[in-house]
Amino acid sequence: MLDVRRLRLLRDLARLGTIAAVAQAHTYTPSAVSQQLSALEREAGVALLERTGRRVGFTAAGRVLVAHAETVLAALEETTAALAAIATGPTGPLRIGAFPTAVRTLLPATLVALGDRYPGLELTVTELDPVAVPAALHERRLDVGLLHDYDVAPVEPDPALDAVPLLDETVFLAVADAPGTDPSGVGGVPVAGEDPLDGVRDLPWIVASPGTLCHTVTLHVCRAAGFAPRVRHQADDFATVLALVAAGQGVSLVPQLAAVDPPAGVRLLPLRTRRRTRVAYRRGAAAHPAVAAFVTAIRAATGDVLAR
């Protein structure tokens, strides 16, 4: 009989690439991970890993077992969900991961609704960049999490996770509505032609930190319009971005959820680009009462926010 905990370590080795990374994810020592994988090989009765110096690869049998491990772990999630459904209602811990804009706009009403209807739920929110959510779900630090991507920069789905659509947003070009004190004259941007980007190609930009999805999307959108943005400021919080735009410090791209209540002096010009947000959870967990309750509650909260 194969040990499920060891199967999870093998799956995570395929996902993370090194024993050291697996050890860090599970708060084990690398030696402990190696011992557990060796024990899994004895259980399987066949070599699963090929070791060349410090590098570890998978044998053909190892690759087969990794593929089946995903099925086994998903089946366990389904079993857990089925057992939880027998209870009187959603109870116990529900660990939620979400990006800052969603924490500020969508989660307050979601948490209130869940707390009122299901007092047995123990709700915990962690603010996370969407790129960190899949790993947190894999490592069972989260039960549900919000992911997003853009139509111009799609993200490949994770085979170990399931997700349902939550929100499809317009992305806006944020510009100053009136001249500010900045001598560059960013305020009162003229918008030429049908494409708002035509009027800002020579202006300074406020962009997210390099390596983030928002930074990648800004570069992609600008290059598709035929120019490279002249970066003046870097900021990851959209409230900060909009404040800088209002102060005449540059222009920026802002998704609809972040532009629900823009400061005075900011004009929002819709672009063709879309941001897509999904609720993600481990494969097999869709029927878990707590997960299903969260999906229902956050969809209702999202509808209310957009209606306002």
Automatic annotation (TrEMBL):
GO cellular component assignments: protein-DNA complex
Family: Belongs to the LysR transcriptional regulatory family.
Name by which UniProt lists this protein: LysR family transcriptional regulator
UniProt KW keywords: DNA-binding, Transcription, Transcription regulation
Record has Zinc-finger as a keyword: no
Domain HTH lysR-type: 2-59
The keyword Transcription is assigned to this record: yes
GO molecular function terms listed in the Swiss-Prot or TrEMBL record: DNA binding; DNA-binding transcription factor activity
